[in-house]
Design a protein that fits this description.
The chain has 765 residues and is of the alpha/beta class. It has 30 helices and 16 strands. The chain folds into three domains: 2-307; 331-477, Reverse transcriptase/Diguanylate cyclase domain (Alpha-Beta Plaits, 2-Layer Sandwich); 492-755, TIM Barrel. The longest helix has 35 residues, at 286-320. 40% of the residues are buried. The protein binds ligand C2E and calcium ion (2 copies).
Length: 765
């Protein structure tokens, strides 16, 4: 750009000195020599040519366009030199001369340049292009009206070639000026300096040429006057345009508001032309009338297009704001509604928002299919709509979630409306010949000043969540009760993201023989390190995942990783299984059994390579789905462990009927062993009774040698805890296993194995 600016500076300096000399000539009768007459204009022309050329060569963007501009100016400069050197001294100048051709050539070259700029910016926006055409033709018709009748006035005695050549100039200029204006208008660039300079430059060219024609016709033209200067000014404007960087995007909306004026204003020009010619105020040429008619045709086309755009826009607006299933307004429409009404002195006046969530919809949808689900939603929408008091509105947010906006409604009234809606929902729905019962939970919040719409909806959502968990039907948002829900909400979102991006990993903790301390299996424990929160313990995020419905995805991710690790351990010959924890919702997940089998099959793993841990409290419901799941696991041959044993109030006798192989005594017992003698009694009798029932026992959370000694003495089979190893990443686990004596090595004497170095490990694989 600096080079371009330098060339521009030369152009301006030459132009200014030329103007000063013109003034001097007129006031002080300064005699112009060849340098002034030819040299300075050539500096301006070549400088401008160089500016555009440098712009094309050195600056990104519009390169081809500026190259054409530069070529146009170069052609013009060449024509001038030729004129001065060859034709000027001669008497018989041919029409057209080579100079004429070179001068005229500038117009098409520049038009190509303008067209290139237009094309790269406009793409195929018909309406914008039409705007430009309307304006360009309007201006052209006005120019034609003013210029042509006189130029064509009396041509008697002038050779045809001369007439044609002379006429070619204003015609070509007209084309050039209207092209520049067309482009400027089409690009809505009338406020951009670069386009103003460019269009101004080409319009100035037209003015200069026309002026020249008038001067010649009047016989008053002479070289070195202001007319010559006007050409140079035009050239300088174009040069200056090249020194302005390619424009950035501007405020579209502001410009759009002005845009409708374009057809109106430019429509006035051709109308004026037609009226003038109809009234015979000026003798209008055919060209002027033709251009005016063409311009009006373009206005008509532009108007038709505008109407089409408006219709399409309003259709799209309606569609984009309606829920296609129920015909209710959608989330976006609701946002607009709330934003319009949402700011006011207090929510009693400004109204309330509520969110309604159906309670058992997912079950129905899964069991009876989407068609039934959709029909049910339609009926629910109808019924709820009937319960919304007068100025209120209901929208479907998606899924089985609806929102209601009650303007100018106090809290008690909103609560009454909520109760009425719940009552309406409690009546059964008849769908596809089946009577269906659905219940709903409603959360209510107020629209307070400064409360953004998103926040209001989130508040209603939290209140709804509270209503759902407490089974109270509806709840009003309460800061003191729901504020910690904000953090939960944010964490759920972060977890959702981590799941999407596969950012959850596993740590593995060995479960070892209480006597030999050799690993018998490893437990897979999920790990999440959030970029903002750092390490988040599973006890914190797993309940959230369960509530937010993320557990299916989380479990599948864990299973993939755990089974991959099981495969590695299997292939390396370690001969130890990986046990995976399942959660409450996993036991209800009908697809899980099949997926477990598929995962084994895909890796060609024996069922003994994996185990499953289920918390004791979940086993109580053994007649329900959990029972089915346990039986399916037994059929698959996957061993089951009862996790956290001792915390879930189940009895030993009861466990006897279940297909479990191992009890894991909860670590709260282990940690109390030394402090509380009664715990010792409980643990010892638990171990004893488990053995009588044919179950083995793992003690969790063993942290000290003393605990280990005690447990071993009581006959505990297996132990797990920080004493042996913390949960570690897979690579560390392998190192740890190798240090123990390597894959499938025979157990060494107890106590010794842990001291064996890596040197004794055999190669995996
Ligand atoms: P859990 O199944 O009882 O897992 C054992 C927990 O005890 C792990 O905590 C482990 O790091 C910790 N632990 C092991 N040895 C010791 C010790 O010597 N002292 C102490 N104080 N703690 C010890 P973690 O990893 O925080 O996991 C917590 C719970 O999260 C697990 O309890 C399990 O119920 C659940 N969980 C972990 N991973 C998964 C998973 O992938 N899926 C599901 N559904 N639940 C998981
Ligand atoms: Ca466990
Ligand atoms: Ca446990």
């Amino acid at each position: 750009m600096r080079a371009v600016r330098l060339a521009c500076a030369v152009v301006i300096a030459a132009l200014l000195s030329y103007c000063v000399l013109v003034v001097l000539t007129q006031t002080h009768h300064f005699t112009q020599n060849t340098f002034v007459l030819v040299g300075i204009p050539q500096i301006v022309l070549l400088g401008a040519c160089a500016a555009c050329g440098l712009r094309a060569r050195l600056v990104e963007g519009d390169r081809a366009a500026w190259a054409f501009m530069s070529a146009g100016l170069g052609s013009y400069a060449l024509g001038s030199v030729l004129w001065q050197v060859v034709y000027e001294p001669r008497q018989d100048v041919p029409y057209p001369s080579l100079s004429d051709l070179l001068w005229l050539l500038m117009a098409p070259l520049s038009v190509v340049g303008i067209w290139l700029m237009l094309r790269s910016r406009l793409g195929n926006r018909a309406s914008a292009l039409l705007n430009g055409v309307v304006s360009g033709l309007g201006v052209a018709s006005a120019c034609a009206l003013l210029v042509f009748p006189r130029v064509m006035g009396d041509n008697d005695g002038i050779p045809v070639g001369a007439v044609v050549t002379n006429l070619a100039y204003p015609l070509v200029d007209l084309g050039l000026a209207s092209a520049a204006i067309t482009a400027m208008v089409a690009l809505r660039a009338w406020h951009r300096p670069a386009w103003l300079l460019l269009a101004g430059g080409y319009v100035a060219f037209t003015v200069a040429d026309t002026w020249y024609l008038f001067l010649v016709l009047a016989g008053t033209f002479h070289h070195g006057g202001w007319n010559d200067a006007s050409y140079l000014i035009a050239v300088a404007l174009i040069a200056l345009a090249s020194a302005i960087p390619t424009e950035q995007a501007t405020n579209e909306k502001q410009i759009r508001n002005l845009e409708f004026l374009i057809p109106v204003v430019s429509g006035l020009l051709p109308i004026g032309v037609l009226i003038t010619s109809a009234l015979h105020l000026v003798q209008a040429s055919l060209l002027a009338v033709g251009l005016a008619v063409a311009s009006l045709a373009a206005v008509a086309a532009r108007t038709a297009l505008a109407i089409r755009e408006v219709v399409a826009l309003s259709d799209a607006r309606v569609l984009s704001r309606t829920d296609s299933l129920t015909g209710l307004p959608n989330r976006r429409a609701l946002y607009d509604l709330l934003e319009r009404d949402g700011v006011g002195p207090d929510w009693e006046v400004r109204g309330a928002v509520m969110i309604i969530d159906l309670d058992r919809f997912k079950e129905i949808n899964d069991a009876l299919g989407h068609q039934v689900g959709d029909e049910l939603l339609r009926q629910v929408a109808d019924r709820l709509s009937g319960q919304v008091p007068a100025p209120g509105a209901i929208a479907r947010l998606g899924g089985d979630e609806f929102a209601v906006h009650l303007p100018a409604t106090p809290r008690e009234e909103a609560a009454r409306a909520a109760a009425a809606m719940l009552a309406a929902l409690s009546e059964p729905f008849l769908v596809a010949g089946t009577l269906l019962h659905v219940a709903g939970s409603i959360g209510i919040t107020g629209l307070r000043p400064g409360n953004r719409v998103g926040r209001a909806l989130a508040e209603a959502d939290m209140a709804m969540y509270r209503a759902k968990t407490a089974r109270t039907g509806f709840e009003v948002y309460d800061d003191s009760q729901d504020s910690s829900a904000w953090d939960r909400l944010a964490m759920v979102e972060a977890l959702r993201l981590a799941l999407d991006r596969n950012q959850l990993t596993l740590a593995f903790q060995p479960i070892v023989d209480a006597r030999t301390r050799r690993a018998r299996s490893v437990e897979a424990l999920v790990r999440w390190t959030d970029p903002e929160r750092g390490f988040v313990p599973p006890d914190t995020f797993l309940p959230l995942a369960e509530h937010a419905g993320l557990m299916p995805a989380l479990t599948r991710r864990v299973l993939d990783l755990a089974f991959d690790e099981a495969l590695r351990l299997h292939q390396f010959g370690y001969g130890i299984a990986v046990s995976v924890n399942l959660s409450a919702s996993d036991l209800l997940d009908r697809r899980l059994e099949q997926e477990l089998a598929q995962r084994l099959h895909a890796r060609e793993l024996p069922a003994s390579a994996v185990k499953i841990e289920i918390t004791e409290s979940l086993l109580v419901d053994r007649n329900g789905r959990a029972g089915d799941f346990l039986m399916a696991m037994r059929e698959l041959g996957i061993e089951l462990l009862v996790d956290d044993f001792g915390t879930g109030y189940s009895s030993m006798a009861y466990l006897h009927d279940l297909p479990v192989s191992t009890l894991k005594i909860d670590r709260s017992f282990t940690s109390r062993l030394s402090a509380d003698p009664r715990t010792g009694v409980i643990v010892a009798s638990t171990i004893d009774m488990a053995h009588r029932l044919g179950l083995s026992v793992v003690a969790e959370g063993v942290e000290t040698e003393a605990e280990l000694d005690w447990l071993r003495a009581e006959g505990c089979d297996l132990i797990q805890g920080y004493l042996i190893s913390r949960p570690v990443p897979a690579a560390e686990l392998h190192a740890w296993l190798d240090a123990q004596g390597g894959p499938a090595a025979e157990a060494g004497p107890p106590g010794l194995s842990a001291q064996r170095g890596r040197s004794s490990t055999s190669q995996p694989g």
